[in-house]
Amino acid sequence: xxxxxxxxxxxxxxxxxxxxxxxxxxxxxxxxxxxxxxxxxxxxxxxxxxxxxxxxxxxxxxxxxxxxxxxxxxxxxxxxxxxxxxxxxxxxxxxxxxxxxxxxxxxxxxxxxxxxxxxxxxxxxxxxxxxxxxxxxxxxxxxxxxxxxxxxxxxxx
Amino acid sequence: xxxxxxxxxxxxxxxxxxxxxxxxxxxxxxxxxxxxxxxxxxxxxxxxxxxxxxxxxxxxxxxxxxxxxxxxxxxxxxxxxxxxxxxxxxxxxxxxxxxxxxxxxxxxxxxxxxxxxxxxxxxxxxxxxxxxxxxxxxxxxxxxxxxxxxxxxxxx
Lengths: 157, 156
Prior knowledge:
The complex is a heterodimer of chains A (157) and B (156). With 157 residues, chain A is an alpha+beta fold.
C-alpha cells in the first residue's frame, strides 16, 4: 500500500466514488455494495495468491478465470468475478463488492497467467481509467508492488 | 394451446359476461381493477410493494430482468415511472428510457457499444459516434446495454 503522498497515487486518481467518472450515470444496486470479505484477496504481497486460477490469456476459457481488481486506500485487491452474489440481481460480484460505496482510484479485470505474468485491462464501469496516463499509472502500480504485468486490450473477447 | 372447447368447436371460448355494478364485464373489477387493460397472459410482478403487469413487449421478456432497467436508469426513476403506469408495455419503456440523457457510443465499424467517451476509450476504439439510450436499447437490447455500462464496452 502506497503512502498517501506518493506521486503514483496522484497519477492514478483522484479516487472516485462508484460511477463518478461517468457523471454517476448509474447507481449501485442492492447487494452490489456488500463487501465480500471472505472472497477478497489482497495482492499487496506482490505474489500470486495461493490457489488462484491461472490461465493462458489467449484461451477462451479465461472468461471463467477473470478477477476483478481495484486499487483503493486498502491497496490492490481482487475478487474472482464468478463468485456468486445471491444478494444482487446480477448474480455475481462486481467491483463495489470489493469497495462498498467508498472511493477507489482505479479498477478493471485481470488474469493470472500461467507464465506468472498478470494480464490486466481497465474494464470497470465503476472505476475505469479515462486517460492514457492513468492507464500507465496502473501498470506502474502493479510493477511497484512486484508483478510482471501486461496491458490487455480494453476490448472484451 | 387450444382448450378442449376450442378443439371441439374450432372457435375461441368466450367467457359469458357477468354483471358487476351495472356494467357488463368478464372480470370482477373489485378483484382485478386493471381488468380493462390487463390481458390474460400478462405477467404480474411485485416491485417496491406495487403490483405491476408485464405484457408482451419489445424490451423486457421476464420480470426478473427489471433490474437491468434499474441498473441503467436508476431505481428512483423506475419507481417514479411505475407510479404513473402499472403496465410495463412498449410505451412505458420508451417513455422511461427516452427521458434519460445518458449517451452511448458506437465504434466506427459499429462492432462495439461503449458507455464512455474519453481519451483512453478513443485511444482504444478510435472515433466514436453518440447514440441515445433509447436507440441503443432498441437496437441491441437491455442486457447488452447494461453490460456495456458495467464493463464499459461490449462487442456487438
